[in-house]
Amino acid sequence: NNVYIDPYWAESLGFPKNKFMLQDWEKRIYPADQVKFKTAIDDILQNDVSYYDFEYREEAKNGDWCWINAIGKFAEKDQTGKIIKVIGLYQDITEKKQTEKAHKLS
Fold first, then answer.
1. Cα(1)–Cα(64) distance, rounded to whole angstroms?
2. Please, are residues 39 and 66 in contact by the beta-carbon 8 Å criterion?
3. CB hemisphere CA count around 29 (13 angstroms)
4. Alpha-carbon span 70 to 48, nearest angstrom
5. Tens digit of each residue's pLDDT (9 = 90 or more) over 20-44
6. Are 95 and 68 in contact (CB under 8 A)?
7. How far apart are the first and last CA of the chain?
8. pTM
9. Is the pLDDT score of 1 beyond 60?
10. Among 2, 69, 101, 105, which residue's Cβ finds the most Cβ atoms within 10 Å?
11. 59 exposed, middle or buried (CB, 10 Å; 0-12, 13-18, 19+)?
12. Cα angle 61, 90, 68; round to 5
C-alpha cells in the first residue's frame, strides 16, 4: 500500500519536493473529478483493466486548477496475480485545455 510520488511532480505544482503526501494529492483533486479519478485507479488495482488514461483537474499550491492527463499501467504482479506495482505519467495539459476552450468560444 505504498505510493511513491515523484518529487518533481510535487514541485511542478508549486510544492516542496519532500512535502507532498498521497493524502495531500487526493485532497487536491477537483471535486467533480474525484469519482472518475478513484474509479480509474481502483479499476487497475482490482485487475479490471491493464492500463488507465484519463484527464482530471488538480489544485496547485497557488490555488489554480491544473488539467492533468494521467496515463499508466500495471508493471508487476505478485505470485497470486495481485498488482503490486503501477507506473504512470502525469502530464500538465492546462494550456491545451485553455486553447480548446478558447476555440470553442470563438
1. 29
2. no
3. 15
4. 17
5. 666 677 788 999 999 988 888 888 8
6. no
7. 47
8. 0.80
9. no
10. 69
11. middle
12. 60
Residue 46 amino acid letter: Q
* DSSP structure string for 18-87: T---HHHHHHTB-GGGHHHHHHHHHHHHTTS-SEEEEEEEEE-TTSPEEEEEEEEEEEEE-TTS-EEEEE
Give the Cα separation of 33 and 29 in Å (integer): 7
Render pLDDT for 4-20 as a digit per residue (tens, 0 to 9): 677 777 788 887 776 66
Tell me the residue type at 67: W
Q: What pLDDT is stored for residue 2 in this prediction?
A: 62
Calpha distance 50→47 (Å, rounded): 7
Question: Between residues 70 and 106, which one has the greater pLDDT?
Answer: 70
pLDDT reported for residue 64 = 95
Residue pair 52/71 in contact (Cβ under 8 Å)? The answer is yes
